[in-house]
């Protein structure tokens, strides 16, 4: 199933900081894998990579229980794209009737979600919050502020979100996919020869507000498990930016390293365009040589 030519990746319904949408074509071209085994994505986040690769058998996992529950709910049809439409239409009217400040209806939904989490509220918060962040405090409480747009859910946006959910519904049909709430170590315990794992852990030394903290020892353990495990792997990491190089790459010694440049904007000015080199370390047997010749 890989390499695969993907020009533009499709975006799933739940976004997250560090989403790899722009890197999906690069990842899909840099890897070869026959797809006979199981595809693992133990740091699922938005799931954008695996959803676009569409393997037949997959295990998506993450320590964030809300992401996993959301996709389990779609898989079991506990929520459907039509439920999403009805819910967002009703909730958007309530949101539009309240101000953009701390009295916004957004905060009522946030409190209700923190008291008793459910997938529809989670989607509502994710799509009306500040910048599509997915952040929790150390007690696991969702704490992203409102994006300050009471009129946020226009008809076109609701349709876009409904279509994103419908896209996930369509790829789930006929696939053997599992969504598991678990740390990456549990996913490694399930892997066998012939499987493939895509790894995109949090950055070390940066507070991202993901559901769990990430530290040096987790990063070292991951490098060890991936490089000594039975499955082929591709590991994503930032390589360097204008200020510094990522020294943690040094623990990845077995595979082939490929890099690509990625621009991101801070504000609208051209001068604020920063360059980040993104790296992918691919296990030797899974590296797609075609990528080298361009
Ligand atoms: C960089 S994000 C993944 C982004 C994803 N590749 C995307 O494109 O949307 C890292 C993810 O790892 C999860 N995570 C953090 N610590 C973890 C752990 N110990 N085991 C499994 N997942 C973890 C976070 O909840 C977050 O969803």
UniProtKB/TrEMBL annotation:
UniProt keywords, alphabetically: Methyltransferase, S-adenosyl-L-methionine, Transferase
Enzyme type, top EC level: transferase
Reactions mediated catalytically: a 2'-deoxyadenosine in DNA + S-adenosyl-L-methionine = an N(6)-methyl-2'-deoxyadenosine in DNA + S-adenosyl-L-homocysteine + H(+)
Origin: domain of life: Bacteria
Biological process annotations from GO: DNA restriction-modification system; methylation; mismatch repair
Pfam name, any one: MethyltransfD12
Enzyme Commission numbers on file: 2.1.1.72
MF term (GO), any: S-adenosyl-L-methionine binding
Family label: Belongs to the N(4)/N(6)-methyltransferase family.
Database matches in NCBIfam families: dam
UniProt protein name: Site-specific DNA-methyltransferase (adenine-specific)
Species in which this protein is naturally found: Neisseria animalis
């Amino acid at each position: 199933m890989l390499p695969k030519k993907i020009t533009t990746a499709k975006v799933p319904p739940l976004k997250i900081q560090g989403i790899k949408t722009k890197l999906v074509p690069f990842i899909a071209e840099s890897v070869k894998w026959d797809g006979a085994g199981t595809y693992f994505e133990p740091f699922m986040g938005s799931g954008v990579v695996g959803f676009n690769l569409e393997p037949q058998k997959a295990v998506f996992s993450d320590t964030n229980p809300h992401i996993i529950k959301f996709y389990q709910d779609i898989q079991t049809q506990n929520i459907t794209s039509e439920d999403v439409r009805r819910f967002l239409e009703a909730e958007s009217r309530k949101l539009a009737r309240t101000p953009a400040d701390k009295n916004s209806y957004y905060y009522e939904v946030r409190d209700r979600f923190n008291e008793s989490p459910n997938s529809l509220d989670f989607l509502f918060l994710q799509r009306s919050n500040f910048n599509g962040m997915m952040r929790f405090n150390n007690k696991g409480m969702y704490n992203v502020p409102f994006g300050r747009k009471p009129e946020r859910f226009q008809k076109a946006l609701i349709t876009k979100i409904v279509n994103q959910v419908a896209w996930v519904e369509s790829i789930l049909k006929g696939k053997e996919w599992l969504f598991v709430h678990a740390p990456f170590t549990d996913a490694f315990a399930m892997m066998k020869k012939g499987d493939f794992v895509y790894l995109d852990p949090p950055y070390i030394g940066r507070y991202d507000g993901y559901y769990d903290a990430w530290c040096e020892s987790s990063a070292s353990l991951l490098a060890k498990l991936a490089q000594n495990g039975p499955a082929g792997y591709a590991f994503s990491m930032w390589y360097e930016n204008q200020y510094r190089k990522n020294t943690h790459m040094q623990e990845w010694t077995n595979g082939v390293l490929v890099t690509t440049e990625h621009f991101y904007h801070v504000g609208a000015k051209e001068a604020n365009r920063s360059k980040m080199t993104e790296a992918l370390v691919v296990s030797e047997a899974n590296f797609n040589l075609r990528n080298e010749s361009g």
